[in-house]
Amino acid sequence: MIAQLALLMKTLQHIILIAIFLLPSALFAGGNLFPLGARNAGICRSSTALTGFWNILNNQAGLATLKNPAAGISYESKFSLNQLSNKTVAIAYPTGAGVLGIDFNHFGYQQYNEMKVGLVYARAFGKYLRIGLQLDYLQTTLGQGYGSKKNITFELGVQSDISNEVTLGAYVYNPIRVKFSDYADERVPAIIRFGLTWHFSESFLATVEAEKSSFYPKVIIRGGLEYSLKKKFFMRTGFSSGEEVFAIGFGIHIKRMQFDIAAIMHQTLGFSPQASLSYAF
Questions:
Q1: CA 82, CA 80: separation in Å to the nearest integer?
Q2: Which of 189, 197, 208, 274 could join 76 via S-S bond, C-beta 3.0 to 4.6 A?
Q3: 72, 54 Cβ separation under 8 angstroms
Q4: Share of the chain above pLDDT 90, in %
Q5: Cβ-based neighbour number of residue 91 at 10 Å
Q6: Checking DSSP bridges between strand 191-199 and strand 204-213, what pairing results, if any?
Q7: Does domain 28-280 have CATH number 2.40.160.60?
């Protein structure tokens, strides 16, 4: 009897996890569509017009401002479930002809997981234009002997500093809409984002962006605020018109190391905590 109850509980756990995977708010088969990094999470993932190391995962054009080699790790527990954990490792290296980078992302657990490996190149063309390109290898794996599906696609980002205070950004993921499955002509979603960041002062910025996905019928609006104290301590908050409605985050920058934590609230499924650590060599 005890063994049967244990088997039933394990089966129910798998059913619940599969149901969460199928929600539009979760990850989609064939690739992670959400901006990553705890700094971006703290402003509710509004990242298209930001610069810095973690834009290697979001809008690669923002990586072109990097001056020193850097590496980072990030961890997100989706809805506080270990089976929905999102783990990321990234490295970036500036050269005389731009910034090169590589990132690795793994989402899920043994019975269902997604892997994404990206090769990045970002470059600034003069003072007012930055462009970033990433080639992606995607792999989605189902347990119980169902096998895996592999795809190759790309991401492209552009940014422009139209003034000393305002930055515009545009980003597209998988514009070619690679096929995920022959069944029902299922394809990896295409994503396009447009964003703006306004630096009101050296200590305070606001950012907003609009996102349209081939998966969603509606446009999602995100926005966030970041305040820094002596460029060492950071406080962040953000909002979204999607299922992720609110976010809060904090950060600390000590010499070459930056540590950020954040939590995003889903309107139905609760909070998703996230932490990131990066180091500039």
A1: 7
A2: 274
A3: yes
A4: 60
A5: 16
A6: antiparallel
A7: yes
